[in-house]
């Protein structure tokens, strides 16, 4: 009875049509057609399982590559290495260009009293992999006429006449530490400073310089240096009088801070303290605080407050000067 059942099952299996072969795997159906023992059928099944696993692995690799390309597109990173290299080169070239800023301020009053005050500033900076070059200049001019008294016209008086220029070069040892040399000259006729020539050398530390995703920037640099200056003095007002010249020399501490409150509002602070140890003890402190609001991509409106303190000013002059100014700035 068992032999008859086995014979019938074998006959039915022999009459069963073979599965249609796939184009890429012609060998597997042949093996299946020829497999008549359980061991052979198990080997064929194992071979098919291995082929299926290989196809699944290839599909997984293709899916991973597609996901990587999609992530690159979402992150804004070019999938093509050549495109990424070109973008990096363009960014480096842009960083090494000169950043130029020009500012202008004007106050004019007419009528019973008249006042004309003009202020200008200019700065430029270029950053490369190993060097940072900077130029800064400023100038102020102002005249004022008091109100008329009993019909008598008053003469106008000079209230501001000063200017300055600084050149600075930094050699970057690392991304954070640099050594620098600075030279410059300035004059202030109202304060009886005919000229002040400056030479300085020291170390600069860039604590951070970053731009966030929302385009807000943040920057902090500190300086520790030795400065020497030769100050020639001459009294221009109210009467002309020659004054003794003085030398200034000693350690200087400086800080430059930038912080983007929002994308279009930037807070700036530049401050320095100079302790003169040559001749009589003397302390000079300068601080400029500024708030700038971007009106367009290139034009901004700023308000600044300047404080200059000299513990030993020229004879007849006060120790502290302050200035509150509004100005327009253009970035080139």
Q: How many strands appear in the DSSP assignment?
A: 13
The first-level CATH class name of the largest domain: Mainly Beta
At CATH level 2, the architecture of the largest domain is Beta Barrel
Taking the sheet with the most strands, its summary is: 12 strands, antiparallel, barrel
What does this protein look like?
This is Salt-induced outer membrane protein YdiY. Pfam families: DUF481. It comes from Myxococcus fulvus. InterPro entries: DUF481. Residues 15-45 are annotated as: Disordered. The chain is an alpha+beta fold and 332 residues long. It has 2 domains: 2-90; 99-331, monomeric porin ompg (Porin, Beta Barrel), CATH 2.40.160. Helices cover 23% and strands 52% of the residues. The protein contains 4 helices and 13 strands. The protein has a 12-stranded antiparallel β-barrel with strand order 1-2-3-4-5-6-7-9-10-11-12-13. β2 and β3 (131-145) form a beta hairpin. α2 (27-34) packs antiparallel against α3. The longest helix has 38 residues, at 38-75. It starts with a helix and ends with a strand. 9% of the residues are buried.
């Amino acid at each position: 009875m068992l032999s008859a059942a086995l014979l019938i099952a074998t006959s039915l299996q022999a009459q069963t049509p073979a599965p249609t072969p796939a184009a890429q795997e012609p060998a597997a159906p042949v093996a299946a057609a020829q497999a008549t023992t359980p061991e052979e059928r198990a080997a064929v099944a194992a071979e098919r399982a291995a082929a299926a696993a290989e196809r699944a692995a290839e599909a997984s690799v293709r899916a991973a590559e597609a996901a990587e390309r999609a992530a690159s597109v979402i992150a804004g990173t070019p999938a093509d290495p050549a495109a990424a290299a070109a973008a990096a080169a363009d960014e480096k070239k842009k960083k090494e260009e000169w950043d130029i800023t020009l500012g202008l301020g004007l106050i004019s009053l007419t009528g019973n009293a008249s006042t004309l005050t003009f202020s200008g500033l200019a700065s430029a900076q270029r950053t490369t992999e190993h060097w940072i070059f900077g130029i800064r200049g400023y100038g102020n001019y102002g005249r004022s006429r008091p109100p008329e008294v009993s019909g008598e016209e008053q003469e106008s008086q000079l209230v501001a006449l000063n200017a300055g220029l600084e050149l600075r070069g930094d050699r970057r040892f690392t991304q954070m530490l640099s050594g620098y040399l600075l030279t410059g000259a300035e004059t202030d006729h109202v304060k009886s400073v005919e000229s002040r020539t400056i030479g300085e050398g020291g170390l600069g530390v860039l604590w951070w310089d970053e731009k966030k995703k929302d385009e807000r920037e943040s920057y902090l640099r500190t300086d520790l240096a030795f400065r020497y200056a030769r100050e020639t003095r001459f009294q221009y007002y109210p009467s002309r009088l020659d004054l003794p010249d003085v030398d200034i020399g000693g350690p200087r501490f400086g800080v430059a801070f930038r912080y983007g409150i929002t994308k279009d509002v930037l807070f700036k602070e530049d401050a320095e303290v100079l302790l003169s140890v040559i001749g009589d003890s003397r302390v000079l402190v300068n601080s400029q605080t500024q708030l700038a609001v971007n009106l367009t991509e290139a034009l901004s409106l700023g308000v600044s407050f300047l404080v200059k303190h000299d513990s030993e000013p020229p004879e007849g002059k006060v120790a502290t000067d302050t200035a509150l100014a509004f100005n327009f700035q253009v970035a080139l």
